[in-house]
DNA sequence: AATGAATGAGACTTCATTCAT
DNA sequence: TATGAATGAAGTCTCATTCAT
């Protein structure tokens, strides 16, 4: 019921330094540092394969400390996601709010913004993570769907509707067209984090150019046809 | 991590006995039954979350038996994936060999065949599995890249080149355009196996229609422009 | 993912003996041995303070083995209780079934049987256990109440009713009188397992004599009064 | 296990300051508030299941503060129990000092007083606590036996002897008869604090009536018999 | 004197793997 | 060849206790 390490510890000589280092209090910095470390590890190894202790070590604390800030491993990931996507989504929503211009431009900007704020950053690892683990963590999946996917798709959806309303894009079931736009971008993020799958050398920026161009013309009304 | 020979041909040696008693066949069928069960479970739950004992139960054997045929859980996954791809690719290659017609038709057929033989079957679970686990199994990833992805992309690439050569598709860096075609189909497979990601109700067939239409027009030469 | 102890193990010399000892299979004996060990430890230290590993060691297995037989620690205790009380209750119920004689004799016999089969054995530790822990393990408490207490009280209750019906015992609210009978016996069991509470030297058998005598006369009709 | 002085008199040194500022009083009250909170929690959940931090929160302080007053969790329990008993015993002893009347009346009054001062209050939780934990705290058990049980039983014992001397109660080994009186009352206290043990609806006051009546007649001399 | 962030020693539980039968 | 009981190494999470502030 009591743990007492004998004072005859061989490491005793360094005790002072150790103690100083061990008990630094970083109250408000901690959660951020933990999430930072967690994002890296989750993205690199996946959720299940990342041990809480690894996160702790990477954040410079012990596992116990993690649990002062997060109820469990799942909550860590949820926090990571929450913190991570908010900015990008807000940006995207702001962009749409008072856009005036061609739908082609709008779609281009939405996709590029998405890519710059997410795809080009560490966050691009999250979609892969969710794909891999969501079936085993339903609550996580629900959270991700509601907080991230739903908002993201709503955004793309509005851009498409904008184009349809303006007569730039063919009338289409928007909820499906959204997926068509979404898929190639998400796949790009997946590829970025899949070292060894035949995409080592893909130039994702050029890939994205082609995606955008293809989408815009592929979704656009076709002169001469009336479908 | 522990070198092991895959259960390459345990059946070969027993060929004679087979002819003697037909019901002995079960024994030779074992590895196949195990892989069959394993595919289902890996696809449904992922690698880490699938217990060897579950695979055993699903295959109608006990855990110990699995280890007669596979050195460890990793080897089961490798075998599962290796076994799963061959058929679909052969079919696709045959299709292309002597096609004559519009590139639009060709691309449509290639994609539809791919979907019918893979997307619509259990095999559609494999891409997700690879996405999730390839980083943890480099050797497997290499195999997958060389044996499956490379062949598959070559196929799509030839279809695109066919279209460019005929003047139907805009000239493009084919290796990137291939990805543009590939991404939405692969994502569709992923969605099929991701219960809870906001795609519960997607009608994948209609999605695919839109994908194909968008791709064909998106990749096509645009009347009035000369790019 | 793989644990391989180097063959240069200093203990290697004893490997054979070790192995022989380590892998003895005792399928059907196991559950009983585990419950046996568990009862001792639970009674001696309480539920929360007993570690699964202690039980395992006492039963000559490792902790992992326990979980092949019991889903969790709580189930171990439930099994202990289930196994333990069945016989005594059956005995008691049989006794009552076709008793003919004075209620005083019946009550005496019921209490003495109870004591002989439970109080005088290791099982006498269970009531104390339940008292101490039941608030923290509601499911356990419910189980105990329904499977043991309810049946036991029903038994005593019938004996009392028998006496009331025969005019030997005063008419009383039976469900309360049952508690009056029960309390001193349960307390005796508690004392037996409370080393240091002032009952070190109590002669529980003589205590029980007095309890019985007091109860019989205390519950009996009083000559000269008609209450 | 680690020797510690109980927070015997931390207030003494601050007496001067106290006179200066009345609101400093809170500081002296701390240990009491902690014990107060601890009693509630220990009684409700048991020792092991009560977290130091819970006690702290309930006392309006933080965990660290607890350790200014108590060396460890064990010492809290010891202090709780030590503090809790004194008052009730004194009352009981006063009652007996100059009683004149029937032994039946005396016994009735002693039991009812005991119940009113202990059974009906929070203190009724202590016996259960002692039952559950005394084996783990031998020193505490010794204290409890000597300071509480011994005095309490002496009290009951004198009441019984009084009855025997007056010819109201049968001659009996008093130290055992004491237990017979004690047991049903202690059990009542235990039941009060055991939510789920089949005593949810017991009317403890009526139970006590029956106990008293049964005891008085059960212990009494039986007209017509000369045992 | 008080805080409360941090520690670290376990506890329970899971599961890939082994091996006597 | 097949079984399945048993192992043992993790992994997640808890919590009494410490100590810089």
UniProtKB/TrEMBL annotation, chains A, B, C, D:
Endpoints of the signal sequence: none
Domain HTH tetR-type: 28-88
SUPFAM superfamilies named in the record: Homeodomain-like, Tetracyclin repressor-like, C-terminal domain
Keywords: DNA-binding, Transcription, Transcription regulation
Pfam families given in the database record: TetR_C_11, TetR_N
Taxonomic source organism: Chitinimonas arctica
Lineage: Bacteria, Pseudomonadati, Pseudomonadota, Betaproteobacteria, Neisseriales
Name of the protein in its database record: TetR/AcrR family transcriptional regulator
DNA-binding region: 51-70
GO MF annotations, alphabetized: DNA-binding transcription factor activity; transcription cis-regulatory region binding
Domain of life per record: Bacteria
InterPro entries referenced in this protein's UniProt entry, alphabetically: Homeodomain-like_sf, HTH-type_TetR-like_transc_reg, HTH_TetR, Tet_transcr_reg_TetR-rel_C_sf, TetR_C
